């Protein structure tokens, strides 16, 4: 009898077409769940017969409580090599192997610039006016050349952001708790002396930090008030880096010009959330990593992970 595998949260219905699952055909029956199941009982009912689960990033938390309700589970595969919503220790304690996949920093970098450029040149408003027969030219765009890009974090994505900012002719500055002047120099950017200086001096601030207990709420009211009224905040990393209440006040009271957001505390974002309707917010439904190339990596390597596990030699195990 074949093992059963469920692929969760396949919003676009592409998991089975972005990889060749045929090598598993004689050993695994694969099914796809396109709808996000927020109700824990409904989720358990949908997958409790499965020995294998494939989860996409942090769409569905897999904690100790859920694992306890899935006694048949033996292998959990997540896209990426880090997933804060998976309790790897609890899985290991229950004899569940957790494996990951490769993930490219290029797609989230590209989407960050899509948001930043969309804000700077008022793309949504102008495109909507053109489509609906509104005014011909109603806004004046912000220049990038000569302006300051402030990067919170200079890791894989932050470094790519810096290179593109420099190519646009921007003055690029960076800050993070452990960032050194040597690393900043290596990427051709200036090290801000502290967090407040970065926010106060930047025309665009983009966040590129891993969410942890240390970085949660890293951007709060003091940082947002330090920004200038014409400045924009862009967050494609994790919503928890920013104090959500302070951000709403900043947007409503125009402490800042606006925000580009691809990540939210609750996903999918509730239909009545004010971030959906604020005029100075350009928001996307967490598309940073959603590209053909990344999906090919995720699902292709998910198949490899399952094959390797079935052959008794798991690969890409998460610590």
Outline the structure in words:
The chain is of the alpha/beta class and 319 residues long. It has helices spanning 40-47, 64-68, 88-93, 106-120, 123-132, 156-167, 181-186, 195-201, 221-226, 244-252, 292-310, and strands at residues 3-7, 28-32, 52-55, 75-78, 97-99, 148-152, 171-175, 190-191, 204-207, 232-235, 258-261, 281-283. The strands form two sheets. Strands 8-7-6-9-10-11-12 form a seven-stranded parallel β-sheet, with helices on both faces. A five-stranded parallel β-sheet has the order 2-1-3-4-5. Strand 4, helix 3 (88-93) and strand 5 form a beta-alpha-beta unit. Helix 4 (106-120) packs across helix 6. The longest helix has 19 residues, at 292-310. 38% of the residues are buried. The mean pLDDT is 97.
Class from helix and strand fractions:
alpha/beta
Shape field: globular
Computed over alpha carbons, the radius of gyration is 21 Å
Instruction: Specify the number of helices.
Output: 11
Strand content: 15-25%
| Low-confidence residue ranges | none
Helical content stands at 25-40%
Q: How many DSSP E strands?
A: 12
User: What's the average pLDDT?
Assistant: 97
């Amino acid at each position: 009898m074949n093992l059963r595998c469920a692929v969760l949260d396949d919003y676009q219905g592409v998991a089975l077409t972005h990889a060749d699952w045929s090598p598993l055909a004689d050993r695994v029956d694969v099914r796809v769940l396109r709808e996000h199941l927020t109700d824990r009982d409904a989720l358990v009912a949908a997958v409790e017969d499965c020995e294998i689960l494939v989860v996409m990033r942090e769409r569905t938390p897999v904690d100790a409580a859920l694992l306890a309700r899935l006694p048949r589970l033996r292998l959990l595969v997540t896209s990426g090599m880090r997933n804060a919503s998976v309790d790897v220790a609890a899985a290991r304690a229950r004899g569940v192997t957790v494996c990951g996949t490769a993930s490219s920093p290029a797609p989230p970098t590209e989407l960050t610039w899509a948001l930043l450029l969309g804000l700077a040149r008022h793309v949504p408003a102008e495109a909507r006016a053109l489509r609906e027969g509104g005014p011909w030219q109603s806004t004046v765009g912000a220049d990038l050349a000569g302006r300051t890009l402030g990067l919170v974090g200079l890791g894989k994505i932050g470094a790519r952001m810096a290179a593109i900012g420099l190519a646009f002719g921007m003055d690029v500055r960076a800050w993070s708790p452990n960032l050194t002047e040597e690393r900043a120099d290596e990427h051709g950017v200036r090290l801000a002396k502290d967090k407040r200086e970065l926010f106060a001096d930047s025309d665009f601030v983009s966040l590129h930090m891993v969410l942890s207990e240390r970085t949660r709420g890293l951007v709060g009211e003091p940082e947002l008030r330090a920004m200038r009224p014409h400045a924009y905040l862009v967050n494609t990393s994790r919503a928890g880096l920013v104090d959500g209440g302070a951000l709403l006040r900043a947007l409503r009271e125009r402490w800042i010009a606006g925000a580009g957001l691809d990540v939210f505390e609750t996903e999918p974002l509730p239909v009545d959330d004010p971030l959906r309707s604020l005029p100075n917010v350009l928001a996307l439904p967490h598309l940073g990593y959603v590209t053909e190339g990344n999906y090919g990596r995720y699902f292709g390597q998910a198949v490899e992970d399952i094959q390797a596990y079935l052959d008794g030699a798991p690969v890409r195990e998460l610590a």
